[in-house]
Amino acid sequence: MQQKTKLFLQALKYSIPHLGKCMQKQHLNHYNFADHYYNRIKLKKYHLTKCLQNKPKISELARNIPSRSFSCKVKHGGFVYYQEGCCLVRSKDEEADNDNYEVLFNLEELKLDQPFIDCIRVAPDEKYVAAKIRTEDSEASTCVIIKLSDQPVMEASFPNVSSFEWVKDEEDEDVLFYTFQRNLRCHDVYRATFGDNKRNERFYTEKDPSYFVFLYLTKDSRFLTINIMNKTTSEVWLIDGLSPWDPPVLIQKRIHGVLYYVEHRDDELYILTNVGEPTEFKLMRTAADTPAIMNWDLFFTMKRNTKVIDLDMFKDHCVLFLKHSNLLYVNVIGLADDSVRSLKLPPWACGFIMDTNSDPKNCPFQLCSPIRPPKYYTYKFAEGKLFEETGHEDPITKTSRVLRLEAKSKDGKLVPMTVFHKTDSEDLQKKPLLIHVYGAYGMDLKMNFRPERRVLVDDGWILAYCHVRGGGELGLQWHADGRLTKKLNGLADLEACIKTLHGQGFSQPSLTTLTAFSAGGVLAGALCNCNPELLRAVTLEAPFLDVLNTMMDTTLPLTLEELEEWGNPSSDEKHKNYIKRYCPYQNIKPQHYPSVHITAYENDERVPLKGIVSYTEKLKEAISEHAKDTGEGYQAPNIILDIQPGGNHVIEDSHKKVCYQGPLSGQIPELDICCFQVFSGCSRVYDKATSQMSYLWVRPRRGGRGGRDTVSINVIQEKCLSPVLDK
C-alpha cells in the first residue's frame, strides 16, 4: 500500500491544487494522505497513466541518441579513440563498431563520481594520448596523459585543464600545450614534455582579467593558435608546429570590437573576421609570413542576417556552416577556382553537429532539431553533391510540423520564431504552449534534440523558440542590438513573439509556459515583472536573475569578463540606471505572478545560489503582500525552488534530466502533464525567526544509497529558505 501511495504522490505532487497548504494542516503520513485525497487521486488518474506511458518513451528516445559521455571519438592514424563504459579505449578504424578494442585507461582510477571523457587529443606519432575527464556534477576537469605501449600507463595528470593540443618539435619530441583554468578564468598557457625529458612550464599569461585564452590547432596541424578573447575583441598568436619552442608570432594586435579566427592552408592564412563594413563575419586571407591586418584580402562575404556556425578547411575546399534568416545552409568554396556552391538544407533542421573528420574527400556532419534525432549527411567533393543517411525515416516528419514565423517588435524589427506542433492538432488555441528564450552573448537558442520535447509535441503541446535580439541567430549585429543599453530590445522582442503567437491562434495566456536557462533568465524574469498576464507558468534552470548586484561584485569569477555584455554599473551611472530598468530582482513588486519553478545548483560558480535564493524570497514576499491586498479567494501561484547537488551549471544530458527533474507542468494542473520526479521523503523545517513550519521534499544525493541530503532539496511551498534543520 505504501509503495503504491508513493507512486501516486510522484505523479500527482503538483497536480493537486493547494497541495502545499493541505500539507501544512496535518503531519504528512502516507496512509492518511492517500485516504484523505483518494477522490482527488481518482480524478487525476489520467496524469498517472500519462506518467507511466511517457517515462519509458522518453528513456527509449534518449537511448537512441549517443550520450554526451560517449560522443567523443577521435580518429588518428589507423585507430579510433573513444570511451567505452568507464574506460578510454581504441580500436582499429575498420573495427570501431565492434567490441574488439584495447583498453588504454580506466577512468575509475581517478575516483570521480560517474566520470566521462570530454575531449581527446592524440600525439602526432601516437606515442601519447591526452584525455580531459569531467563529471556531470562539476565543471572541474582533469587531463590525463597516457603513454601508448604494449601496456599503456598514465604518465601524468593535470588539474583544471580547459583546452589542449599536441605538436612535435624538431627532435621528434611530443609537446603538449594546455590552458589552465582557475575560478572559471583561463589566463595561463603551459607546455609540457614527457618521457626522459620531462618538463612543465608556463608559457604565456594574459594580464587583462576580462579576456580568456584557448588553444586551437589548425586543420593541417601546421600552426597552433593561441586565441585571446573577450565578448567583442580577439587577438591571435601563432606557434609554429614545426618549431614549437620558438617565440610565437602575433597576427594582429587586439583592436576593440574586432573579432578574428584563423585557419591555414598552403602557406596562406584564412581569417574569419568582422573587420570593416558591414561589421558581420567575412572570410579574408593573407600569406602566412605577412599576417598583419593591412595585408588581409577579402575572399568571401556573407549575406545580411547570416550567422557563421563553423568553418572546416580541406585541401582544396573551405566549408562554411551557416544560418541565414533562421534557415541552415552549407557553402562549399573551391579554393582552386574560388567557386562557391550554396546548399540549402532541409527546413526541419535547426542545428548542426560537427563530426571529427580526417577524410580529405568528404565533409560529414549531422542535422538535428529539438524533436528529431540527429541525421547524418555527407558532402562528397568529387561528386559535388550532398548525400543523406538512408534507412528508416523518423515518423515525426509526418506527425509534426515546423513553422518559421516572424513577430514585429515595438520598433518594427522582425523577430524570427521556430514553432513545432502536431500535424493533426485541432483548435491550436486550446493547446498548451511552451516558449523558449535566451537572448544573450550572441549565442543561439539551443535547438539540439531533446527526447522530452519530442514527447511534449506527441502529447499535443506547441513548442515555440523565440530568436530575440541579444542572441546570435541573425549575425553579430543581432547580438549588438540586444546587449548593454539595448537589452530592453530583447524584452520587447519576447513580448512581441508571445503576443503574435497568441494572436495567430497558438494557445492562450492561461496555457502558456516560458522556459529559459542561465542568462535567458534575465528576459524571462523581466517579462514576469512587466507583463505577467501573458503567462501561466515559468520554468528556469540556473537562471541569472540579479544582474545589478552581480555585475557590481568584481570578486565573482565572471563579472569582469561580462562587462561587454551587461555594462559596468560600478563605474558607469548610465549602465547602472539602465540595468535597474530590467533587472528581474530589482523590479519585483506586489502583483499577480505566473507560477515559477526554478532549478539551481548548490555549487554553481557561474550563477551563485545566493542570488537565486534572494530572488525567490523576494518574489514570495511580493506575492504574499499581493494576496493580502487581494483578500480571500485569491489563489496564489506556486513558487518552487529545486536545489540540485553538485557544481555544474546545467545538466545537459536529457536522459539524466528526465531522471532528476520533473517536467514543467507541476505548476499547471490543467495542462494534463505530470511529474516524473522521485522523492525519498518529506521533512519538516522550523524557522525560529518567523515561527513558521515548512515542508520540503528531500532527494538522496545522486549516486547515494537512499541516505538523505538535507542541503540538496526540493522546496515545495516553502515558507523559509534558511539553513535546513530536520526536526
TrEMBL record:
Pfam families: Peptidase_S9, Peptidase_S9_N
Gene3D superfamilies for the chain: alpha/beta hydrolase, Prolyl oligopeptidase, N-terminal domain
GO function terms (MF aspect): serine-type endopeptidase activity
Residue stretches making up the Peptidase S9A N-terminal domain: 58-385
Assigned GO CC terms: cytoskeleton; cytosol; trans-Golgi network
Keywords assigned: Cytoplasm, Golgi apparatus, Hydrolase, Protease, Serine protease
Domain of life: Eukaryota
Subunit structure, interactors included: Homodimer. Interacts with the AP-1 complex.
This protein's name: Prolyl endopeptidase
Organism: Macaca fascicularis (Crab-eating macaque)
